[in-house]
Amino acid sequence: MQFVSFGGGRACVTLAIVFAWATASVAAPRFQQTDLFVSGQGGYYMYRIPTLAVMPGGTIVAIAEGRKTSASDSGDIDLVMRRSTDGGETWSDLEVLYEEGETAPITIGNPTPVVDQTTGALHVLFSRNNARLFVTSSSDNGVTFSAPTEITSVAEGFNFDWTRLGSGPTAGIQMTSGRLIAPIWLNETIGVPDTYRSGALVSDDHGQTWQAGQVVPVNADPTILGTNECAAVQLADGSLLLTERANGGTPGRARSTSTDGGSTWTPAARDSGINPQMTTVKTSIARYSLASEGSKNRILYSAPGATDRSHVTVWLSEDEAATWPTHREIHSGPSGYSELAVTAGKTILLAYESGDSDYRERITLARFNLEWLAGEPALPGDANEDDVVDAEDAAVLSAHWGQTNATWAMGDFNDDGRVDVADASILAVHWQQSLAEQALAVPEPAGAVIVLTGLPLLIWMAAGR
What we know:
By secondary structure, the chain is mostly beta strands. It is built from seven helices and 27 strands.
């Protein structure tokens, strides 16, 4: 055991470093699951179409369709929700976000939450009977919502003669420019796959108004005749990637890109990099981290891993969705639509339809970290995940010293929910170590003490700080 002191008087902190413990107590791979909506409970025959919104303050809002009397895509369908204020550990009771007509066969569906990180507002787009489009907003993390505003006329601006439409149904995103992106699908003739198109609504005034761009062209690949349910992510170069359900032609996935913020799109191209045998289904894509923010460029993708709606899997790309070499199965049984989100503390959330004999039995939330997904240990002390323990990580730890409900990204390297001396000792032991060197490194106690004493302002705790 080594003792090192920082400062003097009221600012003095003594670290007792037990090296074997410090190197063994870093965050381990974590995986937990919770059933959020169970069919047959809460007054609903079935729940489908999960979506997620992670608010700037950490509140998680899970939204789904509550189908009152049957599994049908039309009928008496409401938007229902649950909220969590502790990272998904506990959840509020089931609430109705919006419904019409009590028991009347009015379909309120296709939830598309869009979070504005600047204003803290949550905008939820939805369709009524797949014929009209509305948006409702919350300024208090989903506790209350405004009366819905109809924006059907906006969708008439698309360059496509549609008779049916639906937002998402998946979460929209906010670009680094501040623009809000809400995916949408349009349809000319129900049941005719080649009369579906994908696109996006955009807002440059924090959701006050919305505009339509152009639909994704389907004139480049003869195996893709129509696309619908889609999801967007912003790439590191600022462009948008849209992943689309390809119903017309050969079933599977299609992809398009936009360099003008979603106003126009490249023609739909076959995307076989995830699961080339994938059935038609709504999938999800989400940004995990960016190199420009001190980490790596990482994107997540969720979809069934089989030829049918089963074996839901999450993939990881570190080359901006060009390849997906890392993946892990979440549920081995029936599983359908899924929705990804990432918390500020880098916990990955996956809400997905699941069951034992039918994927529509429940909507489950899986929570896990990158270590579990990748099956590889994180570098202890690397708060910003740039694969080296350095002054930037020390600054993160110092800034969050003493905080509770902490995460790895805040300096909680031993996963006890607090940033304290134990985390400082872990950082010190691995100082200037890279991920490549980790397997070969054997910490020397004396050397670690020298490093620790040389960290300027690593930790200073004064009552008047």
